[in-house]
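User: I'm preparing a small set of examples for a lab meeting where we compare how different chains pack in three dimensions. I only have the primary sequence for this one, and I'd like the structure in C-alpha cell form so I can line it up with the others. Please keep the answer compact; I'll paste it straight into my notes.
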Amino acid sequence: MIVLESAIGNFVYSNGKKYSYFGGNNYLGLANHPAVKKAVIQSVRKYGINFSASRRTTGTASIHLKLEKELSFFKGKEDTVVFASGYQGNSILLEILKDRYSGIFTDSFAHASIHSGVPRDRSMVFYDHCNAEDLDALLSSVKPERPLIITDGLFALTGEIAPLDKIYPIMKKHKGLLIVDDAHATGILGKTGKGTPEHFNLPENENIFQTETMSKALGGYGGFISGSKSLTEMIREKSTTYQASTALPPPVVAAGIASLKIINENPDLRIQLIEKAVRLKEKVASLGFETTKDNTPIIPLIMSTPDKAKNLSLFLEKNGIIVPFMNYPFNREMYILRIAITASHSIAQIKTLLDNIKKWIKTNGKG
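Assistant: Understood. Below is the C-alpha cell output for the 367-residue chain.
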C-alpha cells in the first residue's frame, strides 16, 4: 500500500522515498496550488476548522453562500447546493426525483455511488457499456412509464466518455429523465469545463441533471448540484442526506472558491491537460497496450492478466513511479493500470514513465 507522507503533486513521498506520481484525480494540479493553500489558511484564521452543525440548523455561513454563487456562475445555472461528498449526489437526486420516475436504467460500468444511491423500493436495469442502441432496445422492451437513465459522464477507470449525444435523443424519445454523474468530467470536459453535456453541446433541458464534485479537477472536496431554483430548493427541503449532514468545513469551502477562480482565469489548463493526455495515449498504444479511445486525463493500460498488471505496477514503483493497479468493484473482469495525467506533469516525467514501461516490455512482453 502507498502511504503518502507529503502533499499531492507531480511527485509524492512515501516511506521516505520520492516518487513520480501518476495516480489519483488531481487533473488540473490544484490540490496543492499556492493560491488555494493561502485561501485555506485565511479561512481557518477567520472561521476555525468546522461549523459543527448542519446547513438546515446553524451551519450555514456566508462563505457557503459565496461558494454556491461561484459554482452557479461557473455552471451557468440559477443556483447550486453543496453537500458533504460528491458520492452523495446520486442518492440525493434519486431520492428527491422519486415521484418522477418508475424505472432506473444504468450503464453496466456504473460507479458504486450510483448503485448505492438507488432507493430500496426501486431496482436497476443495466444496459451494455456505452451502448445507446442497447439502452433504446431495453426501454422499448420494458416500456417503463417514466424511465430514468443514469450514467457516469466520464468513467473513472477507463477514461471513456458516455455517448450522451446518442443517449439524449433516446431520453427524449422515451420521455425520461437523465442523470449524469460528472465527477471526473467537471472542470475537464466541455468548452468551459462544465462537463459532459457541454462536451456534446446538448441543449438546456429541465430533464437533464448533473451530480458533481470538487474533489477531482477542482482539487478540493465536497459535492454539488447546480440547476434551477426549484431543483435546489427541493434538495434543501426534501433530501434527508442534505439536511442531516454537517456543513462543509471552512477550509474545504475556501479551497473550492479559490480553485474556481484559478479555473475561470486559466482556461489553458484544460487545453494543456488534454494535449498531454493525447500524446501519452498515442505513445502507450504504439507500445502495444490496449487502451481506450477517448482523449481524457485517464489513460488505462488494459492488461491480459492480473499478475501482469501487478507486476508492471510494482516494477514502476521500484523505479520511482506510482501507477496503481486498480482492484476495484466492477461488473466485468478487467485488469487495469490507471495512468492519471495532470496539467502540471512535465514532459520529462512523461518520458521517464514511457522509458520504464519500455524496459518492462523487454523482459515481460506486451501487456
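A couple of notes for your slides: The first helix runs from residue 34 to 47. The domain at 34-265 is CATH 3.40.640.10 (Aspartate Aminotransferase; domain 2).

User: Perfect, thanks.
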